Amino acid sequence: MPIINNRLSDEEYRTNFSDIHPPFETRDAALVEANRCLFCYDAPCTKSCPTGIDVPKFIKQITTDNIKGSAHTILEANIFGAGCSRVCPVEKLCEGACVYNLMEEEPIPIARLQRYATEKAMKEKWQLFDRLPSTGKRVAIVGAGPAGLSCAHVLSRQGVEAVIYEKELKGGGLMTYGVAAYKVTPEFCADEVDYITSLGGIEIKYNKALGRDFTLFDLQQKYDAVFLGIGVGEARQLHIPGEQSEGVVDAIEFIHQLRSNPYAQIPVGDKVAVIGMGMTAIDAATQAKRLGAKEVTLVYRRTKAEMPCTEEELDLAMLDGCNVIWLAAPKEIIGEKGKVNALVCSVMTLGPADASGRRFPVDSGQTFMLEVDMVIKAAGQMPFTELVTNNLLENNGGKIEVTEKTKTNLNGVFAGGDCVNGGKEVVDAVQAGKEAAQAILKYLQSDESHFFQKESTQPTIFEG
Amino acid sequence: MANISANFLGIRSPNPFWLASAPPTDKKVNVLRALEAGWGGVVWKTLGPQIKNVSSRYSAVNYNGSRVMGFNNIELISDRPLEHNLREIEEVIKEFPDRAMIVSLMAENTREKWHELIQQVEDTGAHGLELNFGCPHGMTERGMGAVVGQDTEIARMVVEWVMEKATIPVITKLTPNVHSVVPTGRAAVEAGSNALSLINTIQSITGIDLDTFVPNPYVAGKSVFGGYCGPAVKPIALKMLATISQDEITRKVPVSGIGGISTWKDAAEFMLLGATTVQVCTAVMKHGFRIIEDMCEGLNNWMDEKGFATIYDFIGKTVPALTHWEDLDINYHIVAHINQDKCIHCGLCYIACEDASHQAINLAWGKPYNTYTIKEEECIGCNLCKLICPVDNCITMVEKRKGDEYLNWKEFQKRGLPLNDH
Known about the structure:
The complex is a heterodimer of chains A (about 475) and B (about 425). Chain A has 19 helices and 17 strands. Chain A has about 475 residues and is an alpha/beta fold. In chain B, helix 3 crosses helix 5, helix 5 (about 150-165) runs parallel beside helix 6 (about 180-190) and helix 8 (about 265-270) crosses helix 10. Chain B has helices at about 30-35, 80-95, 110-120, 145-150, 150-165, 180-190, 235-245, 265-270, 280-285, 290-305, 350-355, 385-390, 410-415; strands at about 5-10, 10-15, 15-20, 40-45, 60-65, 65-75, 100-105, 130, 170-175, 195-200, 200-205, 225-230, 255-260, 275-280, 335-340, 360-365, 370-375, 395-400.
C-alpha cells in the first residue's frame, strides 16, 4: 500500500480541483437572485457578518448595474471580500441568517453575488480607494495574511505606511496556504494580494520570519507601531505511539504542499485516515480523495452534534465519497518497517459538557483497527507559544492576550486574527485587522506613542 | 360551470376576452391561431389610409427584474394593403362564425372617406366597427387618431358621419391623453355611437439609453413619444373606465375595457367597473395566445365561487362602491397587527413606517433578528406596512372604530370636532 503521487491524469486533476462554487455565468443569472433580495432593514445577514458588510446595499447595487459601487460596499467593510466570497462558511454566517430561511425558502446566494461584484472589480483592476496624504508614520506588520493585509489597507488609506514581514514566499496567509484548492486557486490568492496592495503604501517583505530573521524588539525600534497577525501554525500532536511513522502528516503541511506544487506531485496513500472534523480536516480529506486516494476515512472523537465544521462541509466530504467514523479517538498508529499500516482507535462515548460547552468524549475501553497507509492529522492548530513568549508577549497558552480587542501588553504593539483568537475564519481575521488599524491610528495620534521610542538611526540586525 | 359568454350589442362571443386592435390581429395567420387558442373575438388592427412603419417600434419598462411592466410602441395602423385585410377578414369570419369580428377603422377626415371604408368593411360580414380616436402617434400629424379623440366637436362630427352609414354596431375607442375621457365619451354617445371602448395607449417616454442619451425606442439616432400600455397602465385605465360608468350619459352604452389586462383577475376588475367585454394586447405580445386558457378557466372558477351564473351578474357591481372623499366615514379606523409567528424580521415595515409614515412600529434589537411590534396608539391605519410586508397575511389591519356612528367630513366640520394637534 504505497503513498505515491501522479495517481490521476491531468484532466482528472483539473476536474477534481475546479471551482466547487462556480460564479454566475451571466448578468441575467445574477440579477434573478439579486432581485429576490428583500433589502431588509438592519439586516440579519449584515449582523451575521463579522466584518459587517452592508449586504442589502451591495446586492441592490448589483440590480442597478452599479457594480463598482457594489464592490466598494463590500471591500470597504472587508478588503478580502473576493476571497471570503469563496471560503466563508456562509451557511453559518450571512446566508444562514437570511430571512428567506424563515420562509422555508432558499436564502439569497450572498456569497455568489459578492463574488460577482468583487470578481469584476479585480478583473477590471478598479482602484476603489484613495489614500490620504502621508502622515510620515510607518507601521510594521508581521504576517501578510488576512489580518495583516486588512490592517495594512486601512492604515495606508489613512496615510500611514505599512511594511509587512511575511515568512512565506507569497501573501494571503492561510487563504493561500491553508484552504482547499477547489475553493480558491493559488493564482486567485496571488491576484487578490496584488489587488489589495495596488492601493500603494503597502510593502511586503517576503521570506522574513519573526524569530528567525528579526525580533519584535527590532520592529519596535524601527517603526511607529507594530501589528502582529502571525496566525497559528503548529499542528496539534496526537501524542500516541507510532505518531512518528512514515506516512503520518499534518493536515496543514499536506495542504501547504498541495497549494505550493502541481497536484500531480503530491503523494497520497491508497487508504487515508484523517483525524478531526474541522474545516481543515474536511479540506484535507476531500483533497486526498481528489488526489486519487482510494479510501478516505474521517475519524472524530465526538458526534455530528459537536463537530466544528458546517453541515455543508460534511456533505461535501460525503459526496466526495469519504467515510466518517464518529466517536473514535486515535490510540495508536501501527507501522511496519517504520511505515504506517494501521490506525487503532478507541471507541468513545459522550460524557458531560466540557469548557467549550460540548459534551466531552470518554473512552469506552473498546478499540477497533483501521487499515490505512496514510494518516493526516487535523486535530487543530496550536499557537506559536514559544515565539510569543520569547518576544515577551502576555499570552494564554500561546494565544496573545489583548485588551480593547487588539492591544497587547507591549506599548505600541497590537495583535489580531488567529494568533489572538486561536483560529477562526478568514473573515474574523479581516475584522481583527480592521479593528487593530483603528486602534493603531488612535494610538499614533495619542501621547502614548511618544513613549514608543523609535530609533530609526540605530542599525538593526536585519535590512528588509 | 358558469356561462362566461358575452353578448355585446348582439355581437356574441363565447367568452368576454377579445384581442385588441394591435399587431396580434393584423393578419389572418395570427388571428386564426388566436381563435384556435380560444379567444372570444378580435378587433382587427386598424384599417385606413396607406402608411409606412419604422424600425424599431417598441420599448419596455422593466421593474425589479420583471420584464415588460410597461410597454410602448410607435407603430402605426395596418401597413398592409386594404384589400388583403378585407379578404382575410372575410375568410376568418367564415372559418370562425361563432367569434366576434370587430374591425378598427381610421379614415381620413371626410364624410366620403369614412363612408367608403365602412361600406368596404361591412361587405366582409364583420360584426362591428371600432373607431380609432386614440392612436397617439404618427396618425395625429395627419389629422387622425388622438386628435379626433381629444376634440369633442371633431369626435362628435366623425361619429355622426359614421352613424349615417353604419348598419352594424359602432364602438368608439377613447384616448386617455385628455384630462378626462368623459367629454369625448359623451360626444360620441350623443352622436349615436352604440358603445365605447377604453383606453388607448398613453403618450410616453419609457426610458433613455444612458450611453447614447437617445430615448427608447431608437430609430436612427432619434425617437418619438410612444403609446404606453401593459400592466403599468391598468390602474389609470380602471379609473377612466369608472368615470365612464359613473357618468349618466356614457353609462347608457356598453363598454369594452382595455388597458393592461393580463389575467382573468384584471378582466374581472374591469367588468366589475362596468366593462362587458375586455380587450387584451400586451400580455399576448409577451406570452402568446395561450394565456386565454387560464383567463377563461380562472374567470369561470371565480364566478362559480361567487355564485355568478353569467357575466351580467357582476358587470358594474363595484361602481356604487366608489364615492366622494367627503362621504367617507371618518370614524372607521384600523390599526396594523404583526403576526409574530409569520414575521421574518426583515424590518421593511419598520423602516417604511419610521421614514415615511407615523413612527408607529417598535424595534426591539436582537442578533441577528429584531422583533417588531405595532404601537397601536400611534398607528393611523394607512396600510403602508401591510403593503410592503413580503409575507402574506403577516400584517393585518384590525378594525378599531373611533365611534359607532357613521361620520363624514362635512358632519365633522359642522360639529366643530377637534383636528390633529401633532
